[in-house]
Structure formats: structure tokens, C-alpha cells
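Problem 3 from the worked examples.
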Amino acid sequence: MVLFLLAWGIGELFYRVFSLDFDPFADIGYQYATNQYDRLKQYIKLNGPPDCIFAGNSLVQVGINPVNFETAFYEKSGKVLHCYNLGIDGSTMSSTVPIVMIGARMGRPSYLVIGVQAGQFLTKLDLDFCSTLTTE
């Protein structure tokens, strides 16, 4: 039991000290994700981990202002909340999920808001059917 706790403690220490120096997106060439990952690391260094992370595509990136949300949240609840916008240009659900998981692990937010659009849930069969419809 003592060895387990010692190994767990060393692993936790290693994770907390070295995990922010690694770029999980460097090898795949997804520059938007790398840029956002670097900005999140910088945010955490300057402000500490965010309480709330917004994630999704460019609609989230340009459509949600974290400062405005923090202000509205404070006015309604009286509680201070620090938010970060993790929206990425051209992101799909398959590319949003990995950065959300990494961002959530880095920041451990209390709130995680993922912006989605109805079209992200359509299958190829749905799209093929929709293309046959006319608006005449």
C-alpha cells in the first residue's frame, strides 16, 4: 500500500510539473489546435486554471466573449468565474473532442460548454437525402 501511494504521488508530481511542456498536436500539423493549446498554457501560467471552458468551432471562437460571460454570471449569481474560450477555426466534433479533453485535464474546469450545430449530427445518408429536396 505504501509503495502504491508513493508511486501515485511521484506520478502526480511528474504530471503536474512536466505535462504543460508537451504539445500533443505538434506531430499532426493541426496548427489551429497547437495555437490554442499554446494560448491555454499561457493563460494558465498567468491566471491559473479557468473555472469554465467554452469549446467548439469558429462560431464559439468569435461568438462567445468569456469576459462578458464572467460579468453576466457574476451579476446573476454573485460568484466569480474565470472562463477561457477554446474555440478553434474549422473544428469539427472529431477535432474538438481531443482538445477539450486535453484542455479539461490541464485546467480541470467546473464548467465545460461545447458549442455544436445541428449539421454536425447529420450522416452522409441524411446529407444525400437533403440534396434531393428542392425548394420550388
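Problem 4, a separate protein:
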Amino acid sequence: MATFRKQKSDLTASDKKAWLENGIDECKASELMPFVIQQIFDFEAEESILEREIFSIPEKMALVFNYMDSFFQIQPKITEESFKKAAKMMDKLRRYYDKKACLNSIHTESIIDVFRFCVRKDQLLSRNLERRVTIHETDETKSETAQETSRTNLQHSDMEVEAQSKMDLLLNKKLLTHCKVMANNS
């Protein structure tokens, strides 16, 4: 972790910024990022699940930490209150990491909050997140509509079977009555 805080000392400010931007782009392009975003933005998931499925797995945790760390290094100092709060939490995470070379379960809530903040502020990831939510909602709506349609179709087919059964019964009754009449006439 903290891959993007160990830059070479001979980098110029523009080279450092380019290096950090390249690093954050690598994080965004990671095949793990969609899974991590989906899990962390699942507001029904318990922290213990996120801790077990993301924060305890070194590759996923490194991705989360490096993304957040790079995000705050690239951003200019913003006076927005939510930015200040998230930056302050990230500074605490960095200090702990610098002392212990790890993060632990007491940081789970802070990591979740900071990561969500970064993704929401990141225009590309935010659009992907919105698109994924919209697609998910659309899929749910489609499946609900399909279920309602299939229920309606089942009801119609039940009614058709019921109507067909009644029709067969009437025809058989008429045929039986006709046969009895013919038998009586003979």
C-alpha cells in the first residue's frame, strides 16, 4: 500500500502530478475496482462483510488505499466542508499507516466514508456508479414488469383453460343430450 506516496525525490511538480494521475488511472482501470465500488456502495452490507471481503484482502485494500491516497494528493485544497472532513479522515489513516504499515478493523468506517466520498467526487467513477445504479434499477423494473406480465399471462391462460373446459363440458353435455334424444326416438 501507499504506492503513490513513495515518489522519487528528483521529480518536478508537474512530473509528480503526472505520476499521481497515472497512478489513480491505474486504480480506476483495475479489474477489481468495479467489484470494490459495488461492495462499498452496497448500503445494506454490514461492515464486517466489507472487512472480510475487501479490507482483509491485500490486493483490494491496496487498491482502495492507493486510490484514496492519490485522490487527495491530486486534488487542490478545497474549502468545502465535506472535503475537509474526508481529507482529515484520510490524514488519520495515513498517519496510522505510516506508523504501523497497515490499517485495521477500527478504520473500517473511516475507509468506507473516505472511499465513498472520493468516488462521488471523481467524475468518471461517479458517472459509472450512477449508470450502474440506473441500469440496476432498470433491470429490476424490467424484471418486475416481466413478472407482472407472466402473472397476467398465466391468469389469462388459466381463464382460457377454464373457458375451454367449460366449452368442452357444454359440448359433451349437448352431445350426450343429443345422443339420449336420438336413442329415445329410435
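Solution to problem 4. The CA atoms of residues 68 and 115 lie 6 Å apart. The radius of gyration is 32 Å.
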